[in-house]
Amino acid sequence: MGRVWSILFLCVPILGVWIFVAAMNDWWPMSGGAYAFGPGQWFPALDVSEHVIDHLFYLILSLTGIVFIGTGLALFWFLWRYDAATNKDPVVFSHGSHALEVIWSIVPAVALLFIAIYQMDAWANARMRRPTTADGAAKPPLCRVSGRQFEWRIQYPGEDGRFDTPDDLHVLNDLHVPVDEEVVIEIESMDVLHSFFLPNMRVKQDVVPGMRQYVWFHPVKEGVSDIVCAELCGWGHYKMRGQITVDSAAEYDRWYSAAYAEQETSEFVPSEGEE
Amino acid sequence: MSTTTIDSHTQAANSEMSIGHFLSTYVFSRDHKVIGIQFLFSTLIWFVVGGLLALGIRWQLAWPWSNMPVIGNMLFSAEGGQISPEFYTVLVTMHATVMIFLVIIPILAGAFGNFLIPLMIGADDMAFPTLNMLSYWFMWPAFICFGAAFFCDGHGAAAGWTSYPPLSAMTTAAPGSGDAQTFWLLGVTFVGVSSMLGSVNYMTTIIQMRAPGMTMFRLPLTIWGMFITALLQAFALPVLTAAGFMLLADRLFGTGFFLPEALSVNNSPMASGGGQPLLWQHLFWFYSHPAVYIMILPAMGMVSDILACFARKPIFGYKPMVYSICGIAGLGFIVWGHHMFVSGMNPGLGMTFMVATMMIALPSAVKTFNWLGTVYGGQVQFTTPMLFALSFVSMFVIGGLSGIFMAATPVDIVIHDTYFIVAHFHYVLFCGTAMAVFGSIYFWFPKMFGRMMNETWGKIHFTLTFIFMNGTFFTMHILGAGGFPRRLADPYHYPTFSHMLTMNQFMTVCAIGMVAVQVIFAINFFYSLFWGPKAGRNPWHANGLEWQAPSPPGHGNFDFQPIVYRGPYEYGSPETDEDYYPQTMPPKNERPEPA
After folding, report:
1. pTM, to two decimals
2. What is the distance between the alpha carbons of residues B141 and B147, in angstroms, rounded to a whole number?
3. How many CB atoms lie within 10 A of CB A231?
4. How far apart are CA A213 and CA A236, in angstroms?
5. For chain A, is the Cβ count within 10 Å smaller at the N or the C terminus?
6. Is residue B139 part of a domain?
7. Does residue A227 contact residue A243 with C-beta atoms inside 8 Å?
8. pLDDT tens across A134-190, in order?
9. Which Gene Ontology BP terms does the record give (chain B) (predicted)?
């Protein structure tokens, strides 16, 4: 029976690797392949610049994959080889090995420190180094997104570049950004915690009431994608869906003027507590 | 079965003499073994509840807004047999709460900690038996509070098991934010009181009541795991309790610890303000991250004991194993911030927490390699407990490695709050800890009840659980890497995730299978309880002190004074002809008169 059990445990690394490879190469029989699983496109498509985060993901996947396969094979081999039913060798009476302990402490430590240091720059770019304008000042936000149970209120500052003035454009759940430009968005919450999640832009930031925060990304391809709320915000959490559209510069201007004109005619201005 | 009776001065078989009132023996017992078994039965019942709640979640994700067969009309007649979005948030909240606070933590510390600690260190009971009894009975207010939450408006708390304010601080935010949330907070507090009483007892017992010769470095790793867990609870729990009271005050008395100014929820403006929602997250995770280790360290210890026993070999690197338990616990206190990388916390702080979190993978890696080293060169016996212990090692590798992804801050931006996280902690807590618990039940069942469980059915239970469990949880990694978020009642509402429906259906089928095969375990457990073959003192030929006591041990545990001569893992020692060498057996060249 020992052989059967060894093979059962061998299935873990084999099937585990197969599932990951299948998903990455769109072999997974049960995926539609439309979004996340396009050929070589495991992450949601319509990506931002340089795939930094995807690259890090794959790097960690390779490193952990080696350990996963290595330990899985070792476990399989030990079970196969040292099955009491077939193994006639006496037990190796050993309490451990100092040299081995040192080796398998230092090697993972180096690998982990490498990962930790290697990615710091990506983190800083994603969170700490806000894009700047030509003169070095922090780039002003393109718009403000406010989370509210269960919708995204989007406010563009208008001509004067300042929020909460009469020329602001207000839209609901429909964010438009220009392509090939670093976009900064101010986010805030009007009630509970939400999380502003743009899967295709690798952007996620909890929206905390009482805090003003900025997120930024650099869209390089035109297209439409989802704004998802990723923090439980109440019973309607699942339907707190917005849409982000990356437009060409001309298309963005056209959309903006049309939306503004529509707002002027409908005179829709959301007020506090408005439903 | 050879038993080494050194001291013939038996502590009078007082099991016969002390049978007093039924209540004082079986209900309000102060005997650590009875308390341990009480914990075991209570937590197993809640395990069933938690598992069924999980099936509700899986049903919704596989066949959203569809009539549940058979039970749908009974439970949700108002919604036409469907799960409503309100109830879905209750399901995710209560599933997690029940599993963490009423199953995993109390089954490890409460059930196994209570049963094993005095037996394994050679004591006749805990240091404070009455306190010990109270630690079990303080679970009952918690059971009642969590049970009551299901019958309040909204049918349960609905703010997630993390209960982040402001959602959890408002009584009007949603159905389930009212009394159910208050009961939830009270329930967590009572669990905390119970754990605190237990942890004081465990620490004192392990430090003070070890048998002669039982030095700290002769303790089984199970005891080391329990000891460090007790330390973690003692230092981290007060923070959660305090935070819980602050949140209760926000809810009931209008304070504003966690509520900023000018908040309006569900169209009702909040009077209070001046607080900060992130404060709750810091306080909550300051307990709940160490709690992750509270949920795994005892399991690691128990797995080490089982592995050494059935590899018939000393544990590889005993001291490094002990140091890595301590290392995990120490680092466990400074990594809570990794739950908050995208919470709005200062991103500079994120870097610190990231490095600390990376480093905590190190002692975990050392443990894994030592487990492999233990199996190497052994005489592996594939008993049911051994299979569960091996699956713990195999699964913990996956759970540990996936942790590195979320420790990496930039990668965490994408996978935070997705099913990648769900995959990770289910690999650690279900595929890891729960497998260790199953293995431990099969392993110590003869000691607890004096009878053996059925091996064949145990192996069938193991194999099916193992297959279905991997089918359920491994796939979650793929979903999560594609961005599939947690806690959405209908993720297919978003085109980005709509193609993941079939994968979810596959997982749900596996999950139903996984829950169904637990019936085999239940039948085996109860059948063996009454009709299993009688077990001798030491059916597995193990070394630990507990195996030298009668099965089941009477009141006062040992019928002789155990004296310890060596560590618990001297299997296959050349000093003896047997392949095991009980801790109480005097060395061959040394005859009587042990000091």
Report:
1. 0.92
2. 10
3. 30
4. 24
5. C
6. yes
7. yes
8. 999 999 999 999 999 899 999 999 888 899 998 999 999 999 999 989 999 999 999
9. aerobic respiration; electron transport coupled proton transport; respiratory electron transport chain
Residue A127, CB-side half-sphere exposure with 13 Å CA sphere: 26
What order of strands is seen across the sheet that includes strand A242-247? A174-178, A242-247, A223-229, A194-198, A203-207
Residue B269 in 3-state DSSP? strand
Q: Burial, B530: exposed, middle or buried (Cβ in 10 Å; 0-12, 13-18, 19+)?
A: exposed
* Residues with pLDDT less than 70, chain A: 25-51, 267-275
Q: Which residue has the tokens 């004074």?
A: B561
pLDDT on residue B20? 56
Q: Is the dihedral of CA A256, A259, A262, A267 positive or negative?
A: negative
Is B18 within a domain?
A: no
B520, amino acid identity: I
Which residue matches tokens 């979320």? B406
- A271 lies within 8 A of chain B by CB: no
pLDDT by residue (tens digit) across B523-556?
Answer: 999 999 999 999 999 999 999 999 999 999 998 8
Low-confidence ranges of chain B (pLDDT < 50): 1-19
Rounded CA-CA distance B277/B233 in Å is: 24
How many residues are given for chain B? Answer: 595
Among A residues 66-125, those touching chain B with beta carbons less than 8 Å apart: 67-68, 71-72, 74-75, 78-79, 82-84, 87, 89-97, 100-101, 104-105, 108-109, 112-113, 115-116, 119-120, 122-124
Are A166 and A111 found together in one domain?
no
Strands A174-178 vs A242-247: parallel, antiparallel or unpaired = parallel
Taking contacts as CB-CB distances below 8 angstroms, the residues of chain A near B393 are 75
CA distance A174 to A227: 9
Same domain, A112 and A158: no
Partner A, chain B 183-242, Cβ-Cβ below 8 Å: none
Instruction: Give the count of domains, chain B.
Output: 1
* DSSP assignment of B55-96: HHHHHHHHSTT-PPTTHHHHH-GGGTTSPPHHHHHHHHHHHH
Tell me which chain B residue has its CA closest to the CA of residue A36: B482
- The angle at the Cα of A63, spanning A58 to A68, to the nearest 5 degrees, equals 110
Pairs across A and B, CB distance < 8 A: 339
Greatest distance between any 2 Cα atoms in chain B: 82
| Residues B414, A78: C-beta atoms closer than 8 Å | no
Residue of B nearest to A127 (CA): B347
- Which residue segment(s) compose the domain that B530 sits in? 30-261+283-548
Q: What pLDDT does residue B90 have?
A: 93
E-state strands within chain A: 143-148, 151-156, 169-172, 174-178, 183-189, 194-198, 203-207, 213-217, 223-229, 242-247
The range of the structural domain enclosing residue A180 comes to: 143-266
- A151 and A254 co-located in one domain: yes
B340: domain CATH number is 1.20.210.10
A232-256 burial: b if 16+ Cβ within 10 Å, else e: bbbbbbbebbbebbbbeeeebeebb
CB nearest to B167's CB, from A42, A89, A193: A193
- Tokens representing residue B375 in the block: 């199996």
Q: Is residue A274 part of a domain?
A: no
Q: What is the pLDDT of residue B60?
A: 93
In a domain, residue B470? The reply is yes
Q: Do B410 and A9 touch (CB under 8 A)?
A: no
pLDDT score of B429: 94
For residue B417, the SS3 value is: coil
User: Nearest to residue B367, comparing CAs of B296, B429, B417?
Assistant: B296
pLDDT at B2: 38
Does residue A20 contact residue A103 with C-beta atoms inside 8 Å?
no
The structural domain count of chain A equals 2
Beta carbons within 10 angstroms of residue B30's beta carbon: 18
